[in-house]
Specification:
Length: 237
């Protein structure tokens, strides 16, 4: 019977020594495989790390929306109508110092405008670098209404926060807080494009969308042009 080189080598050892030598060879193979994998992963964030960052980003989005909604409630208690609330984040704007500006540090609320985290956006959306909060304010002259199923009056919600271009994972994390699940309902598809959400001069009517849940104060949807849009109702009186 032909003896291989490995067999010849192992025959030089006793039975116990041969067992130890085989173990060391197998151990070396395992260590080499682990080292090779580690090298290939160097410089590339793991999927779990990306998901964790996206989860944090989704929480930041909803927290900002909740803070704005509570801020408007507080301003209403102080006697300011929800329709008169301003969202002026630029310190150079003339209305920044208005007592009706929710971001006025000397106002009734004094909230700080928080830019969305970079991890919130889909890297495949070319316009994500320019994405910013959009405030749909139906009460202002010339602005369109935001009509949502089971939210607000027939005239729609008064104030709605909108952000386009977010990632599908961030969108899914947002909706998980609402208990949404299923293939379509987890991220409801709508027949509107992302541009329809940020065109404040026109009505946005989502009441007849098949997969839209009713009465949700915030939600993330998939648009007809395959973008993901988050909205948060700030005032629905």
């Amino acid at each position: 019977m032909r003896t291989t080189r490995l067999g010849q080598t192992l025959s030089l050892f006793s039975k116990d020594e041969r067992g130890n030598a085989l173990f060391l060879i197998l151990l070396a193979i395992v260590l080499f495989a682990g080292l090779s994998y580690a090298v290939t992963q160097t410089g590339h964030p793991s999927r779990s790390a990306r998901l964790e960052n996206e989860l944090i980003a989704s929480s930041q989005l909803t927290q900002f929306g909740n803070a704005l909604r509570l801020g408007i409630d507080r301003m209403q208690i102080a006697g300011i109508d929800a329709g008169d609330v301003l969202f002026v984040a630029s310190v150079n704007a003339p209305e920044y110092s208005s007592e009706n500006n929710i971001f006025n540090p000397k106002g009734f609320v004094g909230l700080r405008s928080v830019d969305p985290a970079a991890d919130a956006f889909d890297s495949n959306v070319a316009s994500h670098a320019d994405a910013a909060w959009i405030y749909r304010t139906a009460a202002l002259e010339g602005n369109g209404r935001t009509l949502l199923p089971g939210v607000g009056s027939e005239q729609g919600a008064d104030r709605v926060l909108v952000l386009t271009g977010i990632s599908s994972n961030v969108c899914r994390f947002i909706n998980q807080r609402l208990g949404l699940s299923g293939v379509e309902s987890a991220i409801p598809p709508v027949g509107k494009a992302a541009a329809d959400f940020i065109t404040t001069s026109a009505d946005l009517d989502l009441r007849e969308e098949a997969y839209m849940p009713k009465g949700q104060p915030f939600l993330c949807v998939r648009t007809s042009d395959q973008q993901y849009v988050y909205y948060h109702v700030l005032s629905d009186s």
